[in-house]
Amino acid sequence: MKSKLLYLLICISLVACNTEESLTFETLNISNDACENCTSVSIEIPKALGQIKLSETINIALQEEIIALLNFDEESNAQTIEGATEAFVKDYKELNGKYPEESMPWEAKINGSIIFENKDVLTIKLESYIYTGGAHGYGTNRFLNFDKIKKVELDRQELFKNEDEFKAFTETIFRKQEDVPADATINSTGFMFETERFYLPENIGYTDKGLLLFYEPYEIASFADGPIILTIPYNDANNFLKISVMP
C-alpha cells in the first residue's frame, strides 16, 4: 500500500513539474492600418504561452525592448506594444503637421526569433529597422538571454563568472580576426573604441555555433563597415560562462 502511495505521489509531482516548466510559443503579430505614404509599423515576435513565471518574464522583456525601440518621444508613457505603436504613429503625425514638406513617412519593422534553447537557457534575437527621417533608417539587433531554471532575464554581466577575464580573452580573438597587431593600440587599424581600449559589445547571445558577440554599426566602426561579429565556440567560452553549453 505504501509503495503504491509513493508511486502515486511521484507521478503527481512529475506531472506538476512538467506543467510548471512547460514552455511553448505562438507568433504575435502587431501592425497598424498602413496606407500609401503613411507611417507603418510591423511587429512579429514569439509570445510565450502559459501561466508560468518564465513566460511572464520573457513577454515582459520583449515588451519593454519593443517599447524602447518605438519611443521617439522621450515623454511617451506607453505601457504596451500596442500603445507604443499608436504613439509612434502619433509622433509622426505631429511632426508632419509642423513640417509637411520635409517629413517622409516613418517605418518600423521588428522581428523576433528564438535562436537558441536548451534545458538551461533561451536566447531570443530581435531584429529591427526604424526610420524616422533623414538619409536612412537604422537597424539594430538585440539578444535577450533567459535563465530557464531561475526564470529571469540575464544582463550581459550576469553571463560570466568574471567579465574582465572574458574580455581579455576575447580581445585576443578580436585582434586575430580583425588583423589588429597584438602590440598596437586597438584603434590602430581604424576601429573607433571610444576609450581607446577594447570592450565587449552591448549584445551577446547564445547560438548553436557558440557564444555570439555582435557589435552594431557605429558601435566600434563606421556605418559603412556594418556589424562586427565574433562567434566563440563553447569549448572556449564555457570556461567563462556561468551557464555552460555542451558543444
UniProtKB/TrEMBL annotation:
TM helices/strands, residue ranges: none
Pfam families: DUF3298, PdaC
Keyword Signal among record annotations: yes
Range of residues in the leader sequence: 1-18
UniProt-recorded name of the protein: Deacetylase PdaC domain-containing protein
Superkingdom, taxonomy of origin: Bacteria
Residues covered by the DUF3298 domain: 159-235
Deacetylase PdaC domain span: 36-137
Organism of this sequence: Maribacter arcticus
Gene3D superfamilies: Fervidobacterium nodosum Rt17-B1 like, Heat-shock cognate protein, ATPase
Keywords linked to the UniProt accession: Signal
